[in-house]
Amino acid sequence: MRQHDLKPGCGRRGCLRKIWPRLAFALIAFAAFVFLNNTSLLAPERSGRPILLAHRGIAQRFDSAGVANDTCTASRILPPTHGYLENTIASMRASFEAGADIVELDVHPATDGQFAVFHDWTLDCRTEAHGVTRAQSMSFLKTLDIGYGYTADGGKTYPFRGQGVGQMPSLAEALQTFPDHSFLINVKSNDPDEGQKLASFLSALPPERQARLMVYGGDRPIAALRALVPGLKAMSRASLKECLLRYIAYGWTKINNKYGYINERGEEVISPCFDYAANFVANGLARNIYKDFLGITSKQRTQAKLDGNYSAFGDMAKSLLYNGWNFFTMGFVERQAERYNNY
């Protein structure tokens, strides 16, 4: 800045002394606005109870130390405290009876057009068979013992061997058995053809049944599914990332009520975009708590916050601001892989 550019009576240091306080005040005011607009300290306690999600129904817990994508978790279970196996009709029924509002399940397309409810990409870990799950017919999968590979003592004993024969259900069987219950369906691949097959199956369901279903998984099958079944609650890493980035950028300001606002009753409302995102975050947060659903105390069931994060479905949009980056860096979005045998 040249001397003759300065205002009369304003030296270089004098002008800077006037500018910096104003700039500092503006920054402090902005920081205060962000904090007051998003802090949970000023939010009223939410009434009611959190929506509870049972991940794979009631599952056997396992030692998660050192688990990788190809780890056989059935071979490292903890000493069983119940007799249920994940992704079975009995497990789902027990979950609903214990208070679960939603059951998460995993699906693979079988060679005969049905969808098998089973987690692992291959059969080798939990059953006596070998090979890729989706390379089999549902009739063959029904003959397998899904409790065959479970052991808590390094292979000395197999407490569920022989008890899981015929217990792998189809998706149609699960939905028919629990017609009035909600499910979160996990697509285990990133193949768009799988999204098209699932869309064909779900499109045949009445609208009231579709309304109780949500689907999440790889970007490509979910994109295909959303295009073919408009209105279905479907989530992928790409769709949630887009949603969360918009929220982190400006949605939290509530300037545009499409992304979050306070209604006339003083309640915080979020758009379907953020509602779906909250649902997915809730699934990740709830995974480690509800895996052994019967072991949850009544106090834990009514607890609406987990380490400061809301676990209830469709909860406050402000929680997404704090959880947005953890959502991607801490594994709350399940990474799709061909040998994905962990979560």
Could you explain the architecture of this structure?
The protein has one domain: Alpha-Beta Barrel (TIM Barrel). Residues about 255-270 and about 275-343 have low confidence and may be disordered. About 35% of the residues lie in helices and about 10% in strands. It has 11 helices and 10 strands. The chain has helices spanning about 10-40, 90-100, 140, 170-175, 190-205, 205-210, 220-230, 235-250, 270-290, 300, 320-330; strands spanning about 55, 100-110, 115, 180-185, 215, 235, 260, 270, 305, 310. The longest helix is centred in the first third of the chain and has 27 residues, at about 10-40. It is α/β, with parallel strands linked by helices.
Write the layout of secondary structure elements.
Layout (H helix, E strand, L loop, with lengths): L11 H27 L14 E3 L33 H10 L3 E8 L5 E3 L20 H4 L29 H7 L4 E6 L4 H12 L3 H4 L2 E5 L1 H10 L4 E4 H13 L11 E2 L5 E2 L2 H19 L7 H5 L2 E2 L2 E2 L7 H12 L14
Parallel strand pairs: 1-2, 2-4, 4-5, 5-6
Antiparallel strand pairs: 2-3, 7-8, 9-10
Helix pairs in contact: 5-7, 8-9, 8-11, 9-11
